[in-house]
């Protein structure tokens, strides 16, 4: 399951709430790296970065703590489903709020 990334020097796995957390947590554990959840609105305490994006049936926001990726440079996004790609693009936009990240 982690073979494609074992030599990639990934130091953080990002996943989008909530079904992606299941697979992403296992992959982060296997790669011995950080797991960082991107959450729906009003789920995280403290200061967050957020991005709005469109779904097939409406729109929503994705949030992450402002300090979540400070120590991490090489980030892998894990999601459970790819339909329109809007969620993945929103995750990329959110990661880019942190400087010097390889996605």
UniProtKB/TrEMBL annotation:
> Which keywords annotate this record?
Cytoplasm, Glycosyltransferase, Purine salvage, Transferase
Which InterPro entries does the record match to this protein?
Adenine_PRTase, PRTase-like, PRTase_dom
Quote the pathway field.
Answer: Purine metabolism
A Pfam family that the UniProt record links to this protein: Pribosyltran
Gene Ontology annotations of biological process type: purine ribonucleoside salvage
- Where along the sequence do coiled-coil regions lie? none
Q: Subunit details for this protein?
A: Homodimer.
NCBIfam families given in the database record: PRK02304.1-5 (NF002636)
Q: What is this protein called?
A: Phosphoribosyltransferase domain-containing protein
